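User: I'm putting together notes for a lab meeting next week and I want to include a structural view of one of the chains we've been expressing. I don't have a solved structure, so I'd like a prediction I can at least talk through. The sequence is below, exactly as it appears in our construct file.
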Amino acid sequence: MKTKKLISLLLAVVLVVSSFAVCATSVAAAENYNEYEKMLEDIKPENNYGLADTVNEGKIIQAWNWSYANIIANLETLAEQGFTTIQVSPPNELKMPTKGVKVCEPAIDGIAPNGWWMFYQPAGFQLNESTDNALGVKSEFVEMIDKAHELGLKVIVDAVINHMGTDDDHVGVYTNTSTDPMDHVNPRAAQFEPELLAAKAFHSPWVDMTYKENYWDGWSDYDIEEDLTQHCTSGLPDLATETKLVQDTIYEYFVELVEAGADGFRFDAAKHIETEHDTYFASDFWKNTLLKLRENYPQKECYAYGEILNKCGDGRPFSEYTELMDVTDSSSYWAIKDAVQKNGNGGSPTPYYQSEQFDGCDPKTVNFTKENVIQWNESHDTYIDGGTSSLTVQQRNKIWALTAARQLITGVYFARPDDRTGANRAAIEAICANITLGDAAKTSWTAPEVRAVNQFDNYFGDAFEHNSTYDKVTMIERGGLGATLVNLNGTTKSVNMPSNRLAPGTYIDSITGNEFEVTGDDDAGYKITGSIGSTGIACIYYAEDTKPVIPDVPDDPKLIDVSSGNYPVIEGYNTVVYSAKSDWTQAYVYAWMKGTENCITAWPGESMKFALVNDYGERQYVAYIPVEYDCYIINNGQGQQTIDLEVTESLGMYMASQNAAGKWTIGTWSPNFYPYEFPKDDPTEPTDPTDPTDPIKPTVPDDGKVGDADGNGDVNVLDATTIQKFVASIFTEDQINLKLADANADGEVNVLDATVIQKRLAGIEI
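Assistant: Thanks for the context. Below is the predicted structure for the 766-residue chain, given as structure tokens.
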């Protein structure tokens, strides 16, 4: 779970550690409202560079192939760049040497004899002690982690625990056609894992040593589950993870890693290891490894995320894994990548997490949330294979800004070994043929804009977000006091666009030093003006000395649950329900005002929320469009779209037929609409200006005294401390009376309530 981070960190620390007398003196000092100045203080080395407290709260850098010695040499730079966590390559024993080997060795007879992929060919499950390993040995691993922890940095390891390496420790064409898994295990494994080999603790492979994720010939849940978890994984000998011997071996490896200082794991090929929820091949592997580790090492973070790309296999929901670890969300990345690569003319720069639903007689649903996913980004696989290798530094860093600046999004930045681009695998292999495993180049990860975005997110922690795109500039507003702006269509740009949640005043961009201005009021609306610099990215902070006034939180219709098929009609919006063909895995509505070019957001438009699969097998999507926008095109973001539609009321639509241009005409239907009103806050009693010694008079709850946060029947300095610990996430909601803790009756529990209590106890007038 993500946790809170207090923006006004300095004030919180002063309040928590001070005695009553010191507190009374400290809170009397003038408060600094200048967020830019506070951020500059926060990122100083003596304040741990402003890094997040946990892996889950911060940003991860994939230090691909970096040796431990080179990681140590870069630790200070990594901290200055705002990365909280370093993800290291698999640190276990390998089937072949990697020291002195190039990242991409030239192929012989179509087979590369060695290279980066050797790190994914385990010979044993223990920290490496072989001197022929390019990463280093165990003592260097421990030294690297110790030095990282001194700077406030975390370290997680890439854990390859589902399979072992093959026996192709040779050059030339691989001719082993045996279907006995023992004939494929690398000989070096006998040195490190003799018990596994003696017990033949492996699954039987398919004839061609492959697996099938989609088994269309006689499809069933059984086949998919079996194929994914009980047979060979991509030509590699698959461990019998359901057996006690394998579980004990992997658990002991986890223990060694944690006791060496590791803070967590990235699980390679996680969906190929069964869970206790599987129907035919359930096992207690995760219970006896990861969960057992967390139970036995409660003082350790033991963060984990699983590499699960696209899906878990037909009929296997992500919920099997999200209860154990974060899972990778790859679909959002491709939407962001498209938005950047297409200069704002496609994709989605700020995609929503969608619900996942499976069809069939036993439908299963899981919600992807910011609490259980990690934003998948470019990886070593897509870089080498050519899927993302053509992206420039500017494009990759824009994609990173649209990921890292989001509220509570954990993401991974892939540290390329070289910033040159390549159109395909051959081009990248040519570049990497001159780079040695273990090297750590200062490539795009050291860019000023990467540092600025990381520091921006570290500073704002879990502060709320509001996302919008206008004139191909995406703005991610955070906490009403800062924003990251990304120009999807170029670099330097003068911005004049609507602002939704930013307090009026002057803001400073931490990349260029440029000033931005937010002006307006609740009646006329707000706008932001300023200039984005040559990176195409700006990270701005409120820079006024006066107290900010943040506009009210707008209601968000997208949060309304529609999985029952009941659709709300909201004042000021038209509710659009669209029944799409089953192959539409996403839907967008591009809306504009009739007779103008004023669109609600750039093409392909607003992401529609998936609701359900109806009785006809159609996927129903819903969107809420302000009534001012009356012309629509609904599309799937992949080339299919409707004709131009004019819609002036809430309406249900379905795909009727395609015209000569291939665009869909629509039919209409009547969804189950119901009137919906957003809940309104209860009014509180206003301040009584006639009593200068007691100006704040909140409504007293029936069950106690205002300010009695700890519920002991009295109001004293312990109540202020209780509030401070709650704000700092030391206390949870069950350790505080939230109703009574709201001492200033502003509807929130924060450090201001602690200040009110302390001033009242000290006899200081407010």
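A couple of points you could mention at the meeting. Confidence is low (pLDDT under 50) at residues 1-28, 214-222, 355-366, 681-702. The longest helix spans residues 244-259.

User: Perfect, that's what I needed.
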